Amino acid sequence: MDRTALDALAARMKESGTPDREQVFRELREQGMSPIETIYVAARVFDMSLPEAKSAIYESPAWRDQGADWRRLQDEAAESAGDSSH
């Protein structure tokens, strides 16, 4: 993740005024951004915390299909962390 490039992208998106949230999420996905990159950019464009941006992208139509996979991955990681037998 190139934070300098992502910061520049967020700045360009903000320069044009208050962008439409769904349009930003859709554009980032179409550009091939990962969910993590999208969360990072959205947090800067919309002045959100990272947890707020994460919730927002997975509630959006552009990223909703990724939300279930992300939650499953988090649940599996939490279960593995809690299992001390490994």
Secondary-structure topology with pairs:
Elements: H1 3-15, H2 21-30, H3 35-45, H4 50-59, H5 64-82
Helix pairs in contact: 1-3, 3-4
Features:
about 90 residues, mainly alpha, elongated
Molecular structure report:
The chain has five helices and no strands. It has 86 residues and is mostly helical. The chain has one domain (3-81). Helix 1 crosses helix 3 and helix 3 (35-45) packs across helix 4. It is elongated. The mean pLDDT is 88.
Termini distance?
31 Å
Give the low-pLDDT segments. none
Number of separate strands:
0
Counting H and I runs of at least 4 residues, what is the number of helices?
5
Kindly give the count of domains.
1
Going by helix content, strand content and strand pairing, the class is mainly alpha
What integer is the average pLDDT?
Answer: 88
Gyration radius, to the nearest Å?
A: 15 Å
Give the percentage of residues in beta strands.
under 5%
Elements, N to C (H/E): HHHHH
Write down the overall geometry: elongated
Q: What kind of sheet is the major sheet?
A: none
Fraction of residues in helix: over 70%
Summarize the structure.
By secondary structure, the protein is mostly helical.
